Amino acid sequence: MRAVQVVRLEGPQAVELVTAEAPQLVEGQVLIDVKAAGVTYPDVLLSRGEYQIKPEPPFTPGSEVAGVVVQAPAGSGFVSGQRVAAFPGFGGFAEQVATDPSMVFALPDRLSFAQGAGLPMNLLTVHFALTRRGGLKAGETVLVHGAAGGVGTAAVQLASVLGARVVAVVSSEAKADVARAAGADEVVLAEGFLGAVKELTGGRGVDIVVDPVGGDRFTDSLRSLAPEGRLLVIGFTGGEIPTVKVNRLLLNNIDVRGVGWGAYWLPRTAYLREQWTELLPHLETGRLDPVLGPTYPLKDAAEALLALDERRAAGKIVLELE
Q: 199 in the Ramachandran plot: left (φ > 0), alpha (ψ -120 to 50) or beta?
């Protein structure tokens, strides 16, 4: 089968399209013909050997896919020919993947395979962030950094569905329309966002900050929180891992909360299905509707990773296999 592999730990340019062996199906796994694969920031980090998991090259990245079931064990809830999304962890940049049924999810007919491939990591991560770690309540105000990206658009949509007022932060005017289309109530530029947020909230600040960016925005994110506000740390696409002066947390009784979705579900894989079950009605009605950015053929995986690394794209970047 065709697959994309990281052959050297030298970044996005060091991935190649190769002919690889089909996955060896272990008893109890679901085999899927991949139609589309989501591109995530961990894939970029993996290509440089900078992710917390460090496989030796050559290896196939790709943690989220959508496609059609080829084979499924009895009692798994899946049948041959069924449309699904899945979170295989690795190996998604290939024509087939095999994974545990707990990481496979029925894909509503209204969603394309490209949209389905953009769901597992981003949507389940922000669901965990907003509900379990953030304790979001209807009527609260949520600020989302990187709001035109894959994680950002998912956070904007879900926060809106959960009844929040959403303030989106984007890096340029060109990305503002993407955030608005995702459901943001207000959109502000990253440059000077603190002042804009204070003005929009009458000086009170926001209840939750969703931060997949990190870097030099972090201190102003803390300053933008209302009393008892929560800053949710999802990642560091800005490059720098910020530090916290804990005296700031005392001033307004604010929290900085880590969002380690993977660390949470790995010992309790049933949680993934619980999340999907809760989100499925919103996917079926279209209230949650993944915002796609550029799509690339499998052979152009290096360019897709580079576009994500350089933060050039708005919406979710996806590889399409057909």
A: alpha
